[in-house]
Amino acid sequence: MKNKKVFNGKKIRLIILLLLTIIIFTGCNSEVEISKNSTKESQELDNKIILEEKIIKISKLIIEHDEDGDGIKDLDDILDGARKDVQNKPRYHSAYYSGGYPPDYEGVCTDTIWRSFKSAGYNLKQMVDKDIKENTNAYPRVNGEPDPNIDFRRVPNLISFFKSHATVLTTEIITNDAKNLEEWQGGDIVVFGKPVDHIAIISDIRRQDGVPYIIHNGGPYTKEEDALLYWHENISPIVYHFRFPEVD
Question: What phi-psi label fits residue 186: left (phi over 0), alpha (psi between -120 and 50 degrees) or beta?
Fold first, then answer.
């Protein structure tokens, strides 16, 4: 009987030892899994921080001019006007209109420009018509015969006007280059040349690499989109970049 009790005691100790081993082993595995998860979360956080660090920070330029006296500086006012055109969604339709202006629900790329300027207190049609009358030879597209019903809605004429009355800026775009991209400010004007003459307003929304969006009507209606480099590289190259009003 005594030997049987000893045997039972040994058996019980072995069972306890086995259970302790299982508990310890399971615990170690849990710690490994927790460690793996912790490492994974740490790596994801590090990647997020690195990604955020790669976002180019571009300083905003403030031009101290407020044409309409509404408390909003001109570049911001021009940008606001362009966004109103986006909200109105005028469908792309090229036509000749008596009086010059198309209805609000229609337009082409140049209509986004005068509508943007109107928001800032500028009558672009009036300014272009006046300049054409006084400097007709500076407008080859007019060909010596001004037509106020259409002249201000033609890209070559706007080029001639802005070359004389706006600041001419770089046409180069260098991704991830803050110094270069600071020259591209919301409210600026960009012009694309042949084969498709096109004009747009630069947005203050930027891609991660600092390249700004554009606001334009290239069909089917006015949009704000990541299309500056797309147009430049696939449709028509950038030929001019302006800022209005001209800064001394």
Answer: beta
Q: What is the DSSP string of the chain?
A: -HHHHHHHHHHHHHHHHHHHHHHHHHHHHHHHHHHHHHHHHHHHHHHHHHHHHTSPP-PPP-----TT-SSS-HHHHHHHHHHHHHHH-PEE-----TTSPPPTTEE-HHHHHHHHHHHTT--HHHHHHHHHHH-GGG-GGGTT---TTTGGG-HHHHHHHHHHHSEE------TT-HHHHTTS-TT-EEEE-TTS-EEEEEEEEE-TTSPEEEEEE-SSBEEEES-HHHIIIII--EEEEEESS---
Alpha-carbon distance 109 to 92, whole Å? 8
Strand partners, 5: none
Longest Cα–Cα distance of the chain, Å, equals: 129
| pLDDT tens by residue, 59-98 | 999 999 999 999 999 999 999 999 999 999 999 999 999 9
For residues 41 and 10, give the distance between their C-alpha atoms in angstroms, rounded to a whole number.
46
Rounded to an integer, what distance in angstroms lies between the CA atom of residue 248 and that of residue 236? 30
Q: What is the pTM of this model?
A: 0.79
Token output for 81: 């006007």
Q: What percent of the chain has pLDDT over 70?
A: 78
